[in-house]
Design a protein that fits this description.
By secondary structure, the protein is mainly α. Helices cover about 75% and strands about 0% of the residues.
């Protein structure tokens, strides 16, 4: 069976074959859900690097505990629950770390990742509209941010999101409604700050318009003066 045919396998079929010893097929699941895993990880942790580490850890844990996957929920739901539990634990540890005195924080610190990484991938994502949207999403409280990304970005159903978060569907609906409202408010505020820079008309364009308008005014004045001159 070639790679394209293997990629057409269902999640359950891949899981069964990985359990049977075809461990290389785990890559199919990773490529199928990597973006979803990373995006949701990014709603829990405050930097790209930390979210990537969390995503990797979730995949490793999923592989190590694959024999515990019972199929009662979709594989992707089971995977996201692993991710969220690990992410929440890390976030709690980070909050406790930030509450330590400065000397204790420094003593235990090895390396802190930057929130925004340099590189071609990040630069490719760096257009202004997307940056504003990402900033607005990150401004949401975590409970709302996670639901918003699940429902609106990854397009999970209300039921799937509820299973991932271990809450009722009504809770998901309420959080999504509040997330949308807060996001609209934040984006409008950002747009207001940028409004004065909209439709720029400076430099060469301004000079060209001034030159053309003044030229037409001079032409009209000349024509008017010519018309008003007495005939010989």
């Amino acid at each position: 069976m070639n790679s394209l045919q293997k990629a057409g396998l269902s999640d359950d079929e891949v899981v069964t074959r990985v359990r049977a010893g075809e461990t290389d097929l785990f890559e199919i699941l990773m490529r199928r859900y990597n973006q979803r895993v990373y995006r949701i990880a990014r709603t829990v942790l405050p930097s790209d690097a930390e979210a990537e580490e969390l995503a990797q850890e979730a995949w490793v844990r999923a592989y190590e505990h694959l024999d515990q996957f019972g199929g009662r929920a979709a594989f992707s739901t089971w995977l996201i629950r692993i991710l969220l539990h690990e992410g929440w634990a890390r976030a709690r540890r980070e909050r406790r770390f930030r509450e330590l005195p400065a000397e204790e924080r420094n003593e235990g610190m090895t390396m802190k990742h930057a929130s925004i990484e340099a590189g071609p991938e990040r630069e490719a994502l760096g257009n202004e509209v997307r940056s504003m949207l990402e900033a607005a999403i990150e401004s949401l409280p975590e409970l709302y941010r996670t639901v918003f990304v699940m429902r609106e970005v990854e397009e999970l159903s209300t039921s799937e999101a509820a299973q991932c978060l271990d809450v009722t569907e009504e809770v998901v609906k309420t959080r999504l409604h509040r997330a949308r409202a807060a996001l609209r408010k934040e984006l409008l505020a950002m747009a207001g700050e940028q409004a004065r820079s909209a439709y720029p008309f400076l430099g060469v364009r301004c000079d060209r318009t001034v030159e053309r308008v003044l030229g037409r005014i001079r032409e009209r004045r000349a024509a008017s003066l010519e018309a008003a001159a007495p005939a010989n």
